[in-house]
């Protein structure tokens, strides 16, 4: 009887052991690779965000410059319009005075009114308007508008003519910089580099120098000349540390360092 009971217990024990489900085997070796892949993806996202932020900052800088240019243009136009009205009013007063003197038989003592302007006491008076003077600033704004409207080749020509006419002018350095930008917009990178270098070499004290150095660094990086790109960007951060160009150059240098790791 005991032997039968023992056999029954042994059979039940084996049946219970066979019904138990073993826990799954976990391969922990996959976790480091997953973490590494996640880190790599995060780094790519950071680079992409930095690149977009850099482009936005450049666009904001250009838009700020455009707003300042337009504001100054409006002020200049208002002044010019006021001067034209004042000059016309003065000329009309002189003509009226001359007519009054002719009618009274007096001699015209004002040399500013020529006989050709007043024919006789009954003929209409001819008012000769002065030719408008096209200043360096006006020509600079006209060339800049060509560039803004996408007429890059015409803008290059206009800026070059301006520099030839005013080599030491107030807007010569800006005109030289925008020539480089126009060539860069046309993807003529070699010509763009030459024009940006002229800003650095010929206008050493210009506020456009750090921007020109920054663009030189960008072009060299785009052409995979990493050492030369790093040199130009470092010149910006060291020589012009408080400028917006230096801030952008620092970001680019950090990005280059991360890419080389």
Description:
The structure is a single chain. The chain is an all-alpha fold and 261 residues long. The chain is 73% helix and 0% strand. Helix 6 packs antiparallel against helix 7 (209-222) and helix 7 packs antiparallel against helix 8 (226-239). Mean pLDDT is 77; it is low at 15-22 and 107-121.
SSE order: HHHHHHHHH
Query: Main β-sheet: number of strands, strand sense, barrel status?
Result: none
* Spatial separation of the terminal alpha carbons: 79 Å
| Strand fraction | under 5%
Helix and strand composition category: mainly alpha
Number of helices: 9
Shape: elongated
Oligomer: single chain
User: What do the pLDDT scores average to?
Assistant: 77
Number of strands: 0
In short:
This protein is mainly alpha-helical and 261 residues long.
Keywords:
261 residues, mainly alpha
Helices, strands, pairings?
Layout: H1 2-19, H2 30-103, H3 136-148, H4 152-165, H5 172-185, H6 189-202, H7 209-222, H8 226-239, H9 244-259
Helix pairs in contact: 2-9, 3-4, 4-5, 5-6, 6-7, 7-8, 7-9, 8-9
